[in-house]
Amino acid sequence: MRRAFPVLLSTLLIVSCIPSLVWSMGEETFGNQPLNALNYKDWPGIMPVINHESRVYHVWVNGNEYAYYHGEIDALNDVLQKFAATNQKQHEVVLRPGPASTKSFRQTKTIPFHWDLHLVGGIARTMAKKDQGEKIWNPYPMLSIYVDETIPLEKLKIPAGVTLLELADLEKRFSGGLASTDITVRGWDAGQLANLNPYSTSNRNAIAKLLDDNEVWVRLNAAGALAVFGKKATPLLPDLRARLNTDDAALKKRLTETIKIIEAAPDKSKYEKQHQETLKQISQFLKAQKK
Fold this sequence. Notes:
It comes from Gimesia algae. InterPro entries: ARM-like, ARM-type_fold. This is HEAT repeat protein. The chain is an alpha+beta fold and about 290 residues long. It has a domain at about 1-180. The chain has ten helices and ten strands. The protein has helices at about 45-50, 75-85, 120-125, 165-175, 185-195, 200-210, 215-225, 235-240, 250-265, 270-290, and strands spanning about 1-15, 20-30, 55-60, 65-70, 90-95, 100-105, 110-115, 115-120, 140-145, 165. The strands form two sheets. An eight-stranded mixed beta sheet has the order 1-2-3-4-8-9-5-10. A hairpin with a 4-residue loop joins β1 (about 1-15) and β2 (about 20-30). α5 (about 185-195) runs parallel beside α7 (about 215-225) and α7 (about 215-225) packs parallel to α9 (about 250-265). The chain is globular, with a radius of gyration of 19 Å.
């Protein structure tokens, strides 16, 4: 089932440098209804991956596109073979701790998944041309696998030509975007880095530095991104409270919201421990693959 409707996004009015809300076009598809190959001419050979029978959800917003898949190891290995066979200059596959889920546009459905495919085209692709933008908006298809008991590492069959990455590789890449000369890249990257690993103290601290950015839009994004860390951001509360003494109403509101979220955040130390253990397993797997 396909649904297309406007999506409200926070963006930047370049002329005035004031944050604003605009309507962007978005589209989502539930299930594995075949998508039209005419929309994927920029990625030769990608259709067997896009339309794999394991796809459960697909979302597109201004060219920023994700396909989500749910299945067991045999289906994943089949997708890996098809992904490696695409006519692309690079075939990056990221191994990340699971389990994973995403939300539908209207936040009415939670969709569990085991791996996803990210494509950047349309308007989103122009962002990659900005300073450090390619570190966030990858011009090549990227497959991410979320490792849990359903996806045992020892049963993964990695085809030739595939470059395996771990979370630390993406964190290093995304961190570079925080130093971009472009305010859109810096602001957007704050949220991307936070969601990449909400248990990372170094990510948290790097984003917190953007609270001193010269551009208020970047500071707004940084303040909002810190809420993603939940209880992990508790040490930042004194500084966040001190920053409430600002004449910027929007920033004050965002800081207040973030402070409330952090204060009410549940203890996720159990999940963090599991997350860290899976990261170690992934690192060991990658080392073994290089031998």
